[in-house]
Specification:
The chain has about 350 residues and is an alpha+beta fold. α1 packs across α4.
């Protein structure tokens, strides 16, 4: 553990570098009214912090910059003690009431990116966790039917079926009534879903008709991917000057290939509190020059997704962590209301 003086200086270097993007020198620190030490004392302490791997000394400047280890110590030990002096971030006001989940995810991502000036990413609840709210079986033409499924998240799925001969309107009406009676409230990923679509106790005609309509339900869950909402890519690329073109390409590929992001963010689902990975703490090569701050949201006994920001290691961690946590709390309240209506 560092001494209080060393923690103060480390925190000031982190703050100064985050604000200016330039190495912080002992003269600038000595001029800070919060620091009551002379330049020589400050230089000695900075040298100790550098020996411990918490600061680095670029060749082009006399100042210091935080290392990944320095940021980690700052996040774990310095930030928690700043109860009265922490910079208050702008409020993450989402106004989510009564909106569909897709709109809530998009709105959260956009707002979080604006508040933090970082790349914001929100993973939506997997479709297999949603339930069926209502089913319609509509006759578009005598031989063409459309099955409409409305889910608990507000999503609407439509599937058109063509038959070789005209469909009995009474059979279509029966199917709508049966599907609403048997499937409403059931999860799209539930095993019982298939059983109710293939009920052997039904007459042969009705059972065969349901078999033809079944893909509207089974394929919806099987083919759906977890959805990512991303905003602020331009902010990330503009804020972080990539000197290594290889890493720039990796970041661009990561943003294009969503599966990599989903894999990275899935690790945050197991965390109870805020999840912070700094620089080389990130397993993904594309993120090893960046920092990730994430928190999960969901129901009281089940996490459904994550809220996160990605940016330079010199990001304002206080703002990023508080903003991500606030957005996750609001999304949790929102999905509790939505899923509670299922």
């Amino acid at each position: 553990m560092l001494s209080p003086r060393q923690e103060l200086l480390l925190g000031k270097v982190v703050d100064g570098f985050a604000e200016s993007g330039q190495p912080v020198g002992s003269k600038a620190l000595a001029a800070d009214p919060d620091i009551a030490y002379g330049p020589s004392t400050i230089r000695n302490e900075l040298a100790v912090l550098e020996e411990q791997g918490l600061l680095a000394h670029p060749h082009t400047s006399a100042g210091r910059v935080p290392t990944d280890s320095g940021y980690r110590y700052f996040v774990d030990h310095v930030l928690p003690k700043r109860t009265s002096t922490a910079v208050a971030p702008r409020a993450v006001e989402l106004t989510l009431a009564r909106r569909e989940v897709a709109e809530a995810m998009r709105m959260t991502t956009e707002t979080l990116s604006q508040v933090t000036n970082l790349l914001a990413i929100v993973t939506a609840p997997p479709i297999a966790t949603t339930t069926i709210r209502h089913v319609e079986v509509l006759a578009l033409q005598p031989q063409v039917l459309m099955v409409v499924i409305i889910t608990s998240t507000g999503g609407v799925s439509k599937r058109v079926f063509a038959f070789e001969s005209p469909v009995d309107p009474g059979l279509a009406e029966w199917a709508a009534a049966y599907l609403n009676e048997q499937l409403v409230g059931m999860g799209l990923g539930a095993r019982m879903l298939h059983g109710r679509l293939e009920d052997p106790s039904l007459p042969a005609t009705e059972r065969a008709f349901l078999t033809q309509l079944a893909p509207a339900f089974t394929e919806l869950a099987e083919t759906a991917d977890d959805t990512l909402y991303v905003d602020g890519a331009a902010r990330l690329l503009g804020e972080y000057r990539f000197q290594d073109l290889t890493q720039l390409n990796q970041v661009m590929e990561m943003l294009e290939r969503r599966v990599t992001l989903l894999s990275v963010l899935s690790e945050a689902l197991a965390e109870r509190d805020i999840y912070v990975r700094i620089g080389r703490e990130n397993a993904a090569p594309a993120l090893q020059g960046l920092s990730l701050v994430a928190a999960n949201y969901g129901l009281p006994r089940r996490n459904l997704g994550t809220v996160s920001v990605i940016g330079p290691t010199r990001m304002d961690y206080a703002v990023a962590m508080q903003s991500v946590r606030a957005a996750a709390v609001q999304l949790s309240h929102f999905v509790e209301d939505v899923y509670g209506e299922s």
